[in-house]
Design a protein that fits this description.
This protein is mostly helical. The chain has a domain at 79-198. Helix content is 57%, strand content 2%. The protein contains five helices and two strands. Strands 1-2 form a two-stranded antiparallel sheet. A hairpin with a 2-residue loop joins strand 1 (175-177) and strand 2. Helix 3 runs antiparallel to helix 4 (136-165) and helix 4 (136-165) crosses helix 5 (183-192). It starts with 35 loop residues before the first helix and ends in a 13-residue tail after the last helix.
């Protein structure tokens, strides 16, 4: 017959220890996604769009504003430009009929060709002065332009004179202001007023 063993004090017969269930991290509910990154992305996208629109609007304004501005050297009355272009075009044709100065066999022959072209340019300037406006801002601008052209012509005359005695003589052009050759304002006003034939000739190059 089996032996009965008394239980130790504090121990209940047949009692089963109960422990609290341990939840694993995998069982925890996922945190709700935040809307902040999405909001920041939308804000950045709108900021880029706004910047692009502002840049386009700025350049459109600059383009329209520039298109409406009158060039500084444009005359208020285009009549002189139309008449001057005809006179200068006729002179350009006469200069083209002269033998190229840079193909002359001697310096004396080259000086003679330059003299002929200078005479044609002098006659052109006299005809331009006869039709030039005499009053207002147009008169002032044309007078200054003709004065610059006469300065350029005097440079050519001086070159031809030196060339007769010095085969190595070079053409020197006066400056309107430091660093700006006299032909720059001549060509600028001529181009701004549709007088392409009135730009300084390039027959000495």
């Amino acid at each position: 017959m089996g032996r009965l063993v008394p239980s130790s004090p504090g121990q209940q017969t047949g009692a089963v220890p109960v422990t609290a269930p341990v939840e694993s991290p995998a069982d925890e509910p996922a945190p709700a996604p935040s809307d902040r990154p999405r909001r920041r992305s939308r804000a950045a996208r709108w900021a880029v769009i706004a910047a692009c629109v502002a840049i386009v609007a700025l350049w459109a304004f600059v383009y329209i504003w520039a298109a409406r501005q009158k060039p500084v050297d444009r005359l208020a009355d285009p009549a002189f430009g139309r008449q001057a272009e005809k006179i200068c075009a006729a002179t350009s044709t006469q200069l083209a009929e002269l033998p190229p100065a840079n193909r002359s066999k001697t310096n004396v022959e080259r000086a003679g060709v330059v003299d002929q072209s200078n005479q044609e340019l002098g006659s052109m300037l006299a005809r331009l002065a006869a039709i030039a406006p005499t009053s207002g801002n147009d008169g002032r601008m044309v007078r200054e332009w003709l004065a610059d052209y006469h300065t350029y012509l005097s440079n050519r005359v001086d070159y031809a004179k030196r060339l007769r005695t010095n085969r190595a003589a070079r053409f020197y052009e006066a400056e309107k202001q430091p660093g700006e050759q006299i032909t720059i304002p001549i060509d600028t006003l001529a181009t701004a007023n549709g007088m392409g034939s009135c730009t300084a000739p390039e027959d000495l190059s």
